[in-house]
Design brief:
Blueprint: H1 13-33, E1 42-49, E2 54-60, E3 75-82, E4 84-93, E5 96-106, E6 110-113, E7 118-123, E8 130-137, E9 142-147, E10 152-157, E11 170-175
Antiparallel strand pairs: 1-2, 2-8, 3-6, 3-8, 4-5, 4-7, 9-10, 10-11
The structure holds fe (ii) ion.
């Protein structure tokens, strides 16, 4: 079912968005049926992965927010299938993580993420769930996540979400 999405890395900006939009439109019920909405954080359902691309579906209850993170140097594209997302972009300046911009997105829109990119996402609705499709190319094996309260950067395995990591998921950590 997901095989058509393996063409994404070779496409231009517009074709890529057209393909994702058409794919979601024709498979929407199937896609929604695998998404769950945990109390804590958000769900990560990796539905397709080869060396070239990784496709993940995420489910968020109202007002859930992830930690700032990068995508291990991969390109990323998020398609907001359902809900309202707040995307916040950060920069590291003199060892400090600073918010640069925050923008709200409505369903059926895309958030495009270049290789060098630190961001956090939030379900910005008080009462509605949020569902997203995330595409990363190439697929990646590690990423950096930022604990803003403790000012600790964790490099974690690609299987970890952008939240408090478990000990076995941490590759290294440092203060920022
Ligand atoms: Fe992300």
């Amino acid at each position: 079912m997901f095989e058509p999405l393996s063409a994404i890395p070779g496409l231009g900006f517009q074709e890529r968005q057209d393909l994702v939009r058409a794919f979601v439109r024709s498979n929407k019920q199937n896609l929604l049926s695998v998404v769950d909405f945990p109390e804590e954080q958000y769900s990560r359902n990796i539905v397709f992965k080869n060396q070239g691309i990784e496709v993940m579906l995420t489910g968020w209850k109202p007002l859930r927010e992830c930690w700032p993170h990068d995508h291990g140097g991969s390109h990323g594209l998020v398609y907001l299938i359902e809900g309202t997302a707040l995307n916040t972009i950060y920069d590291i300046n003199n060892g400090k993580l600073k918010k640069v911009t925050a923008k709200e997105f409505q369903s059926e829109n895309f958030i495009s993420m270049p290789e060098v990119y630190i961001h956090s996402m939030k379900n910005n609705s008080q009462n509605k769930r949020m569902v997203e499709m995330h595409l990363y190319w190439p697929s990646f094996s590690s990423m950096k996540i930022y604990d803003r309260e403790k000012s600790i950067m964790y490099e974690v395995k690609g299987t970890c979400g952008a939240w408090e990591p478990r000990e076995e998921e941490i590759i290294r950590s440092e203060h920022f």
